[in-house]
Design brief:
The protein is 56% helix and 21% strand. It has 39 helices and 14 strands.
Length: 988
């Protein structure tokens, strides 16, 4: 027996160990996202092996999940096992083609393993998602360089630099690329191409001193010292006072033994830069000039000869040419005047030298005047026309910089019509195009663009410019169609640039359509844009907004999901996701979705607005579900982030009103700002809330009843006082009834009750257990007419969507009266009368009445409908009464109403019994009524109600001529009773 016991204990222990060990190995992760989040935390903390172990567990549960495969690829990348890394990253993309993280890492893997073509392919895929990512463009250029494809790299760099001319990083990359190119050409001995590359570099970066020095040295190596001198002048014009350029130019002049010119040049430059090095060079040049003077400069000799009277052509030509070349401006001007005297004022050679001299002197106006004179005299001379074109271009550039496009246009048109040089001509046409566009002369701009594309087929910006012009002509649709055609016919790289251009036109056009109310057109254009560029932020925003306005909720949800996919952290799309949930009335889910985002972006207006909107809808939903405390908690949370939101405050007031907290309801609802049309109604509603805030109420009611066929008046007066609280209300009520009627044998009465006075005292208590449950209990005692004892208990349940159900039970001790007849002893047979019985009084009987009933009510905006049925148990018999009613509240104050009702049954409605009005059981009783109440002020409400009752009436009589043979009879008929209730309610 002990062995069996030990055996069982051992088995239970093993089972316990098995269960605990299996539960211990379960990390509790239910989704791939949970695995991914914890693994990333491990990796971030450099816990790579722990992360890998957890990752392997996740992949066993969820094989081929994209994010898990990416993280495994990331692990192997960290371990530098690039084959394994590539394997898992490719699997990640197979599962989710849009896994951007995996593609980024694959670019690194292929780059490290020198598979540059594959890396470029992955970069292209990333650019499809985000074509604006300039870092990816730079990475693509870098990969081309690693592939030794410098031609494609330079082409791409130049193109992207044209598209983003203000991007300083791209500009630096472009300059660096050109600089590397010319350095390689220089090292390879290809000086001419190096000079061309440097010329381009100087255009891009005219302030770089090193470039001028290099191009000067290259020209010197080519033996072209005059060109070197020209570049030194250009450099000093761009960088005045440059010490290195001053020294370089002076050195060249010194090598050419042009000491006077060098000395004059240095003296001039020392006005800007009087550094020790330049002063030292000046002194050295003075020594060299002094030594060279011994050799007798020909310029000096020719000058002495000319001054001596030998003014022949040889001397004049030498002196003129040398003075111009050496920059002896005063001498040159003198010799030009001398030459004009000898050769005339219109000699082309002399005029050209004069033009060149003025250019050296930076006298642009004089140079242009001289050149213009030559052009008028020699319009077909190529060099003069070329120089004239250069002057016109220079003037045009200055005017365009000042925004004077109309003044610049004639200059560029002059150049474009001369066809002196292809590059110059192309530049002139482009400037003419720019002038026309800025002058808003778009038809001429289109004609100019046609000319450019005709004469320059390789012009790359034709589509961009044409689309831009069409857009300015309010032909945006035509411009967008032009882009679409270009996109269809372009290669991969150009397609991206055209898509960018398309978006730049489409976005303002869509905005314009939205502002003009052309929502359908805006939607169509936004869809086209998103189809071309699925990651277009503004395109997605307009697609979402326009689809929402058009009621295309499926599209709204689709583009919201697409936006979240591309911009998961962007608040706009998260707010729209909340709107999707709101449309499905999933307000609680919307709030749960927004809470973590709101914690992350606590000041973001879009998220705060979405959270406030969802909170408002959720509060309204909870209020209809009779859960005001939860509704208030939701609104209080929203107000923590959006404390000035008047709509939230107003909704909070509505919730308080539903919870019978009128003072709080009034405080918050007063923040609402009604329109002009709403103002009176809103003020009326506030008055109603002020009335609800009053805790005390006195009600005075007067009932006047009259039979239809008899002038018999029955009245009941009521006075009551109510003390109101949020959960409890207490009422004391006094009813008074006076009856006209027979009380003795001295009258013949047709009434069913005797005359007299009756008083009823009643107490009532109403208690709200919660927003969903309440009960009312009352009890009353009376002297006459009213039920001797009255007791009622009612329970009411408030359901969702403004439905109510109720049940009640009541007890009444009611009195019934019959006429009493006795024999008249003075009656004798054979007399003139035929009736010996006299009415001597009333017989009163007491009966118990038990009532059980139910009620159903529904509020639809400003109308409240209700139906009620009562079942009475009376004298061991069962009777019923069914009632329907409707109240219309037209004034939005909660009190003013129009009330209609009707009832039918084998018993009268309970109010007939309570007000001591006549009625009958076992026969059909009907009633219709119409009335209403009006709130005169927050303190006074008046009411008037009229009812028409039709009931069965019977009267007992006794007749006869012998006391031994009484003849009893009952007369029956239906009677109409008309009632008017007048009410006054005084609140304070």
């Amino acid at each position: 027996m002990n062995r069996e016991f030990l055996h069982k204990i051992t088995l239970l222990g093993c089972l316990f160990l098995l269960i605990t060990s299996s539960s211990g190995t379960d990390n509790g992760f239910q989704t791939p996202e949970q695995y991914a989040q914890i693994v990333q935390e491990h990796f971030a903390n450099e816990e790579w092996e722990a992360g890998k172990e957890l990752l392997e567990e996740g992949l066993q549960k969820y094989p081929n999940v994209s994010d898990l495969e990416w993280l495994m690829g990331k692990y192997w990348f960290h371990e530098k096992n690039y084959d394994q890394s590539r394997y898992h990253l490719v699997k990640a993309i197979d599962d989710n083609y849009n896994n951007v993280n995996a593609k980024h890492l694959l670019v690194d893997v292929e780059d490290i393993t020198e598979n540059y073509s594959s890396a470029i392919c992955y970069v292209n895929e990333l650019l499809e998602v985000n074509p604006y990512w300039r870092g990816l463009w730079r990475r693509k250029i870098e990969l081309y360089r690693k592939q030794n494809n410098d031609v494609e790299a330079d082409r791409l760099l130049k193109r992207i630099n044209q598209i983003y001319p203000n991007d300083t990083i791209l500009r630096k990359d472009y300059i660096y690329s050109m600089e590397v190119g010319y350095q390689q050409m220089k090292k390879g001995g290809n000086r001419k191409e190096a000079i061309e590359r440097l010329t381009e570099l100087i255009k891009v970066s005219p302030q770089n001193e090193e470039y001028y020095l290099d191009i000067i040295n290259l020209h010197l190596q080519e033996g072209n010292r005059e060109a070197a001198l020209g570049w030194s002048s250009n450099g000093l014009a761009a960088i005045p006072g440059s010490g290195a350029l001053i020294v370089k130019r002076a050195s060249i002049l010194s090598e050419l033994a042009r000491y006077p010119e060098a000395l004059a040049f240095i003296r001039e430059q020392m006005k800007r830069n009087n550094s020790p090095a330049i002063r030292r060079m000046y002194n050295d040049l003075l020594m060299e000039a002094a030594r060279a003077e011994k050799q007798r400069d020909p310029y000096v000799l020719y000058g002495m000869a000319y001054e001596g009277g030998n003014k022949n052509k040889e001397a004049l030509d030498y002196l003129l040419n040398t003075s111009v070349t050496r920059g002896y401006t005063d001498d040159a001007l003198f010799y030009i005047r001398e030459a004009k005297k000898q050769y005339g004022n219109n000699d082309k050679g002399i005029l050209y030298k004069e033009y060149m001299l003025y250019r050296q002197m930076n006298e642009d106006d004089l140079a242009y005047s001289t050149l213009k004179k030559m052009y008028e005299m020699y319009p077909d001379d190529y060099d003069i026309t070329l120089a004239m074109s250069a002057q016109h271009m220079k003037k045009a550039e200055k005017l365009m910089e000042l925004g004077l496009y109309a003044e610049a246009l004639p200059h560029v048109l002059f150049v474009s019509q001369k066809h002196v040089d292809n590059d110059v001509n192309g530049a002139a046409w482009e400037k003419a195009l720019s002038c026309y566009i800025n002058m808003k002369r778009y038809n001429e701009a289109l004609a100019t663009l046609d000319t450019i594309t005709l004469h320059f087929p390789d012009y790359e910006n034709g589509t961009l410019k044409r689309a831009f012009i069409l857009d300015k002509m309010d032909k945006t649709e035509e411009a967008l169609q032009l882009y679409l055609s270009a996109i269809e016919q372009s290669d991969e790289d150009m397609r991206i640039f055209y898509v960018i251009g398309y978006e730049e036109l489409a976005v303002p056009y869509i905005k314009k359509c939205m502002e003009a109310g052309a929502t359908k057109k805006a939607y169509e254009e936004a869809i086209k844009l998103v189809s071309l560029n699925p990651s277009s932020d503004l395109g997605l925003r307009y697609a979402i907004n326009s689809s929402g306005l058009l009621g295309k909720y499926d599209e709204f949800e689709k583009y919201t999901a697409q936006g979240i996919n591309y911009y998961p952290e962007e608040p706009f799309y998260q707010a729209k996701r909340a709107t999707v949930l709101e449309r499905d009335k999933r307000y609680e889910a919307s709030l749960e979705f927004l809470k973590p985002i709101l914690n992350k972006y606590p000041s973001n207006k879009e998220i705060i607005g979405a959270f406030s909107q969802s909170s408002e809808y959720r509060a309204q939903q909870l209020t209809k579900a009779k859960e005001p405390e939860k509704a208030l908690a939701v609104l209080d949370t929203a107000l923590l982030y959006d404390s000035q939101n008047k709509s939230l405050k107003y909704t909070k007031g509505v919730v308080y009103e539903a919870n019978r907290q009128a003072d709080s309801a009034y405080y918050y609802q007063k923040y609402y700002e009604p329109s002009i049309m709403e103002y009176r109604s809103f003020q009326r509603h506030l008055s109603g809330l002020r009335s609800m805030m009053l805790k005390n109420e006195i009600a005075l009611t007067y009932l006047r009843a009259r039979y239809g066929e008899e002038d018999i008046i029955t009245s009941v007066a009521t006075a009551e006082y109510t003390r109101k609280g949020q959960k409890n209300s207490y009422t004391g009520r006094l009813n008074y009834a006076g009856r006209s009627g027979s009380a003795s044998d001295s009258m013949e009465a047709e009434e069913q009750t005797p005359g007299g006075v009756g008083i009823q005292v009643q107490g009532e208590w109403t208690h709200h257990f919660s927003p969903k449950w309440s009960t009312t209990v009352n009890a009353a005692f009376a002297t006459k007419y009213f039920p001797d004892i009255t007791a009622d208990v009612a329970v009411r349940h408030y359901l969702k969507n403004d439905w109510e159900i109720g049940a009640h039970v009541g007890y009444r001790r009611v009195a019934a009266y019959t006429k009493r007849y006795e024999w008249n002893d003075e009656f004798f047979a054979g007399g003139t009368g035929d009736n010996g019985y006299l009415f001597t009084g009333w017989n009163e009987s007491k009966t118990n009445l038990l009532t059980v009933g139910g009620e159903l009510a529904k509020t639809i905006e400003v109308v409240r409908l209700n139906t009620k049925i009562d079942m009475h148990f009376f004298n061991s018999n069962f009777y019923y009464n069914a009632q329907i009613g409707a109240k219309y509240f037209p004034a939005n104050d909660g009190k003013t109403n129009i009330n209609a009702m009707a009832s039918i049954g084998s018993a009268p409605e309970t109010a007939v019994l309570d007000y001591a009005l006549p009625g009958s059981f076992s026969h059909t009783n009907t009633m219709v009524g119409l009335g209403g109440q009006y709130m005169v002020s927050p303190n006074i409400t008046i009411g008037l109600m009229g009812t028409w009752n039709t009931y069965y009436n019977q009267t007992n009589t006794v007749r006869g001529s012998s006391p031994l043979n009484p003849i009893e009879s009952i007369s029956t008929r239906y009677k109409n009773l008309y009632n008017i209730y007048a009410q006054v309610y005084i609140s304070f």
